[in-house]
Amino acid sequence: MALKSDFEDYKVSIEKRCYEVATAMVKFWEIKENINQGLSFYIALQDAIKNSKQTCSDFVMSRNIESEGMLEGLHKNMGGLHISSNRRQTGRRNR
Q1: What pLDDT does 80 receive?
Q2: Cα–Cα–Cα angle for 74, 76, 81, nearest 5°?
Q3: Which InterPro entries match (predicted)?
Q4: Could you say which residues of the chain have pLDDT below 70?
Q5: pLDDT for res 1
Q6: What is the three-class DSSP state of 4?
Q7: What is the CA radius of gyration of the chain?
Q8: Residue closest to 66 by CA, chosen among 78, 58, 77
Q9: CA pair distance 17, 76, nearest whole angstrom
């Protein structure tokens, strides 16, 4: 009888361990899937940040080019202006 009892205990112990292994495998696959989803998220976020950075750089470059063009136009327009130091004499005479 003791032998049969030991065998039953052994069988229950093995079934318990098999259940624990199966549960651990399910958890492992769940964690692995979560890691893959997180990795995909951060890769997509990294790409979005790169695109945003490039868009900002393009915007800044465009504004710099635009401001340089405006400054050149301003310098050209101001080049045509002459300020003379001759003042018109008023009707008064110095005596």
Answers
A1: 74
A2: 95
A3: ALIX_V_dom
A4: 1-2, 82-95
A5: 63
A6: helix
A7: 42
A8: 58
A9: 87
The per-residue pLDDT for 94 is: 53
**How far are the Cα atoms of 26, 28, 41, 59, 62 from residue 53, in angstroms, in the given order?**
40, 37, 18, 10, 14
Name the phi and psi angles at 81, rounded to 5. Answer: -85, 135
Q: What is the pLDDT of residues 40-60, one digit of tens each?
A: 999 999 999 999 999 999 999
CA 64 to chain centre: 23
**Three-state SS sequence of 15-83:** HHHHHHHHHHHHHHHHHHHHHHHHHHHHHHHHHHHHHHHHHHHHHHHHHHHHHHHHHHHHHHHHHCCCC
3-state secondary structure of 91: coil
Angstrom distance (rounded) from CA 40 to CA 30: 15
